[in-house]
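User: quick one, sequence for these C-alpha cells?
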C-alpha cells in the first residue's frame, strides 16, 4: 500500500528537501516534514501556497505529477481587478500562452475565502480592486495559473492550491501535514 502525505506548503518554501542555490538558504520541506522515503509528487512554486502531495511510491508519484494522466488540480487565485464575462470565458476555453494554448479550465468567481494571513501580505492598492477565482486545470505547466490569469488581464496576487484529485487542503494549517 502506498503512503501519501498531504502538506499545506506555506508561501516562501521550496517544494523540495534541499536548496541547491548558493547564498542565502531558503526554507525547504525538510524544515516541516520528517518522513524518510517520501518525495513530492509535482511542484508548487516558491511564491504559491497550499496542497502539496508527497508519496513513497514512484508509480503513484508519476501518476499524480504527469500531465498525461490529467489529474485535476484546483487553485484559489486572488487576482488584480474584476474579470468580466469575456475573461472568464477565455479561461474556460483555453488561453494562448507562449508555450501553446492551455487546456480549458473550470473557472468561476468566488467570494474571498477565509484563509490564514500570508507573510508577507499581498500588496494592497486602494485604486485597484481585487477578486477571487476558483480554477481547475488538468495540466501542470510551469506557473500555469499565474500565466493564464495574466493572459486575460488579471495578474495573480495570491495563489493557493486547494485540491489535487480527491485530496484537499481542508483542515490543514500552513506548515502542517497529515499522513494518509
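Assistant:
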Amino acid at each position: 500500500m502506498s503512503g501519501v502525505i498531504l502538506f499545506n506548503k506555506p508561501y516562501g518554501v521550496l517544494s523540495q528537501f534541499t536548496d541547491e542555490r548558493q547564498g542565502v538558504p531558503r526554507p525547504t520541506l525538510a524544515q516541516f516534514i520528517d518522513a524518510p522515503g517520501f518525495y513530492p509528487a509535482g511542484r508548487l512554486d516558491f511564491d504559491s501556497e497550499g496542497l502539496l502531495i508527497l508519496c513513497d511510491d514512484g508509480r503513484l508519484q508519476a501518476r499524480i505529477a504527469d500531465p498525461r494522466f490529467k489529474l485535476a488540480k484546483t487553485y484559489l487565485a486572488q487576482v488584480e481587478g474584476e474579470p468580466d464575462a469575456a475573461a472568464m470565458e477565455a479561461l474556460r476555453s483555453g488561453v494562448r500562452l507562449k508555450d501553446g494554448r492551455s487546456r480549458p479550465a473550470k473557472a468561476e468567481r468566488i467570494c474571498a475565502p477565509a484563509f490564514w494571513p500570508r507573510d508577507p501580505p499581498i500588496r494592497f492598492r486602494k485604486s485597484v480592486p481585487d477578486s477571487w477565482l476558483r480554477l481547475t486545470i488538468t495540466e501542470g505547466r510551469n506557473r500555469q495559473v499565474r500565466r493564464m490569469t495574466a493572459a486575460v488581464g488579471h495578474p495573480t496576487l495570491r495563489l493557493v492550491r486547494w485540491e489535487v484529485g480527491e485530496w484537499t487542503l481542508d483542515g490543514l494549517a500552513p506548515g502542517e501535514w497529515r499522513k494518509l
